[in-house]
């Protein structure tokens, strides 16, 4: 499978998973905060949306390593559900209250934007706009893997919050 189709499929699946997890919740459930002071489901969804707004690829270049070399490290980092991370301030949720239908529209719009952006890009190029902490510069493919894997991690988090509340 061509790499653009591969990552497009992964992005589609994770955003469809996110939609499926929240679509049967009420606005009240979306906004309920866990007793441990964690984020509400709505805040987690906003964080996913903020962190998946695009990739830093205004300046790109060719290089001499595999386009997916960092994928195992990315997956290992985000799928270690016992590890906790502090989100960059720019990615923090900014609202206290959310409307489920609004979030669902935004999830669909984000998925559509990402899939359209992926379609015709050379995903093997190295993005030089910013480095990923501890991994350095990533290819477009690797940045999209960050988006997909990070979003999947938070889908598990939402499922945990739902389970803790019994819905």
UniProtKB/TrEMBL annotation:
<dbReference type="InterPro" id="IPR024775">
    <property type="entry name" value="DinB-like"/>
</dbReference>
<protein>
    <submittedName>
        <fullName>DinB family protein</fullName>
    </submittedName>
</protein>
<dbReference type="InterPro" id="IPR034660">
    <property type="entry name" value="DinB/YfiT-like"/>
</dbReference>
<feature type="domain" description="DinB-like">
    <location>
        <begin position="13"/>
        <end position="158"/>
    </location>
</feature>
<dbReference type="Pfam" id="PF12867">
    <property type="entry name" value="DinB_2"/>
</dbReference>
């Amino acid at each position: 499978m061509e790499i653009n189709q591969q990552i497009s499929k992964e992005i589609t699946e994770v955003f469809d998973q996110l939609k499926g997890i929240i679509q049967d919740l009420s606005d009240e459930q979306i906004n309920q905060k866990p007793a441990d002071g964690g984020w509400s489901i709505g805040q987690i969804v906003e964080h996913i949306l903020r962190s998946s707004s695009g990739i830093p690829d205004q300046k790109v270049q060719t290089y001499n390593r595999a386009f997916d070399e960092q994928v195992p490290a990315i997956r290992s980092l985000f799928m270690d559900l016992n590890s906790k991370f502090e989100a960059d301030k720019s990615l923090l949720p900014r609202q206290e209250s959310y409307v489920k239908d609004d979030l669902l529209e935004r999830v669909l719009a984000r998925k559509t934007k990402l899939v359209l952006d992926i379609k015709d890009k050379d995903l093997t190029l190295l993005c030089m706009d910013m480095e990923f902490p501890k991994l350095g510069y990533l290819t477009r493919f690797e940045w999209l893997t960050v988006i997909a894997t990070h979003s999947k991690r938070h889908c598990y988090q939402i499922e945990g919050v739902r389970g803790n509340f019994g819905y």
